[in-house]
Each structure stands twice: as structure tokens, then as C-alpha cells.
Amino acid sequence: MKNHTSNNSPTPGRREFIKKSGIALIGSSLAYPSVSFGAANLYKDSPLKIGLIGCGGRGTGAAAQALEADPNVVLYAMGDVFEDRLEEAHAALVKIAGDKIKVEKHNKFIGFDAYLKVIESGVDVVLLTTPPAFRPDHLTAAVNAGKHVFCEKPVAVDAPGVHKVLAAAKKAKEKNLSLVSGFCFRYDYPNRAIYGRVLDGEIGDIRTVTTFRHGGEAWYKDRQPNWTDMTYNMRNWYYYNWLSGDFIVEQAVHSLDMMSWVMGDKMPVSATGTGGRQVRVDKKYGNIFDHFAVEFEYADGAKGYHFTRQQSDTSHKNSVEVFGSVGSAIVHIGRKYEITGKNKWTYEGERNNMFQTEHDELFASIRNGNPINNGEWMATSTMLAIWARMVGYTGQTISWEQAFNSQESLGPKVDEYHWDLKWPTPPIAVPGKTKFL
Questions:
Q1: I want to staple 237 with a disulfide (CB 3.0 to 4.6 A). Which of 117, 243, 285, 332 is the partner?
Q2: Structural domain harbouring 65
Q3: How far apart are CA 304 and CA 295, in angstroms?
Q4: 214 and 235: one domain?
Q5: What's the start-to-end Cα distance of the chain, in Å?
Q6: What is the pLDDT of residues 201-249, one digit of tens each?
Q7: Helical H runs in 22-113?
């Protein structure tokens, strides 16, 4: 495995990558043979063709990392709903990866059906980096077509979407396809080391986990005169829960994934809490909240607490602290990884770029014929965040069974999207008044 380190930061952020590179996307097609994956591992020495679906900053970063992960790969096709975003991504990737960009004009696909065209273009691996609402259907289509997948987090915005992802993950396993998740903190070496020790019992029985993800405001795109309502929604997808899931699902889900990881991916039995919209009062912020606070209870009595906010000029905190019967594990992301109590320990090992490691391990698994499948836990971690949103929106205590079996579907079906669609954005939730569905 290649060592990708940074002297300034152990895990360079995606926004940092965007600032340094500029961003764009497009598609291309050369005579690189497509090969099948099976017991004989026909991918061992063959060129691998990558298809990028979703050409924003995250997609551009993922494509650059995928191209760096293996010497014999090319970017072969690209798709996005916006041509300008695709072209910007393509231009940035040409600067970064040079002759590894083999996207011909006829393999640049624009529109809500671009994902299908990328999948059908002859690629071997697809990178799914669109807004979260589209991931269940895009993943299903990719797996049905026999493609290896990098699937960004979160993987859905509602419980029906999670069920689709679980079904696709099961099929990927049956087909011996690699499915690697964008839950990047599971690919971070310090996290792997400290959570591995916790799971091995070094702090005893876990009694409490606290997670914080406190940060500032996100981006916003001003409306242009020629935009339809759908164009405006898609340009500002982050602020509409039917596209993003709300910020607790889109961003803070990382913290809940780490909570789930350290708890052995067992699900809590109930959750209660609150949330609201104290600073995001302008209509431009769609219908998402700006803070949540949720308590999860496990069957053995352990508790998990998650606190998150996105409010300008407030203090930042990104941490996971695990309290056990004989010690504690303290993680302040990027800075501190230590165990206190009976088995004192501090991480002093290698630091890696976790975003790059995701792709290094994905492509290594394809080459060596030992597929990775992150499908089940990436789906259930996403469900934890959806569940937390349900709790915050309604103000009710909700069980795992209720949340997981919810029939609430937030957005249109994948084949219903078009630029003149006026999807009725739900009103801003009010705890105590908004009903659980």
C-alpha cells in the first residue's frame, strides 16, 4: 500500500483539495478492454476504466484519488446534471492526472439519466458522488451492471433508500464485487488503531460514547434569472432534506458512523432528543435544521450521545470519547488519540490521507481478487443519522424498529426528476408538531 502523508495535516480535507486543484468533469472512450471479475481474477493485470457519476468537488477529489491508487487506470466516462460542473471537473483532472484522463466527448453525459449512460459506457469501476438522494438507485444500477463501486456517504436520505442499499450490497457480495464506502474515518490509521483497541476490550465494557461535530456555515449559490425551481434546488441541494437528508445525515453522519464502529456496529434500541433551526432562519436555507442533540440507548444499557451544529462564529469541535469500565478512549480528530485508565496508550504510528487510502484499498481488492464490501455497515450508519433526524424533527422517542421500518420517502423517484419539476419542499419541522411517519 502506498503511503500518502501530509506534514501539515494527517487527513487533508476535501475542501483543501478543491482549493488547490480547481474542479471539473467530463467523459471519454478509448480502446481499453472491459473485463469480468471472478475466481480467476481477470482484473489482475488489465487496465481498469473508471466512470465518475457526480462531478462536484467531492467527485473530482474522488476521481483524482482513484487515479492515484493504481498505475494502470484511466478515467473513461463522466456524468453530471450540470455541464459546467462536468467541464470544470474535467479540466481540473487533466491538470492533476494528465494522460490518465481518457474521456472522449461521446462519454461526457449530462442529465438526470447520465448515471445510466456512464454505467453502460464500458467502465469497470464507478464512483458515486452525487447528492445523497440519488445514491440508492445509482448504486443499485451499478451493482446490477456488475461494476465495482466507490459510494460516498451518506448512502440514502430515508429508510426506504437504506433498504435499497442493503439489497444492492447483498447482491454485490453475491457477484464478488467490491463496494467501498466514503465513510473515510474507517480508513484512517489512528482511528483504526484506537478503535481496534477498544473493540479488543482495553477500556473494558463500554458505558458511554459521546460524539461532537460542531462547525460553521456551509456554502450557498445565489439564484440566477434563468434557473427553474429544480435548478435552484439542485444547485443548493445541501439545504433540502429530500436531497441531502439534512446536515446531520449529510455531514455529521461521520460521527455517528464512528460511534457505531466503536460499538461493534450493533444498533441501539431507542433514541430521543431534539433539534432546531435557530440561526438558519432565511428562506435560502431550505428546510434543514442547524443543530441536533440526540441520545441513543443500547440493549445493554450503554448510551451514545451525539451533538452537532452548523452555526457561524461558534466554536468548532470534532471528537469521539468512549468511556468504559476500566478506562476511556479519547479521539479529537486529527490531533489526539489516547487511552486512559488501566491500559494507558497514545497513538504514535503512521498518519495517512484517509481519502486516498479508501481508493488504495478499493483498487488493491479488485487487483487481488478479494473484494471489499462495506455495504451493510455503511447503510446502518446512514440509518442512524436518518433516525436521529426523525427524533430531532418530531421530538419523540423512537425505537430502532420504528425508524428502520418507516415508510416515509422524502423525494421523487429517480425517473421522475426533470428541470420543470416543482417538488413540494416539506415545511420546516417543528418538534412536538411534526409527526413521525
A1: 243
A2: 14-185
A3: 6
A4: yes
A5: 46
A6: 999 999 999 999 999 999 999 999 999 999 999 999 999 999 999 999 9
A7: 57-69, 83-97
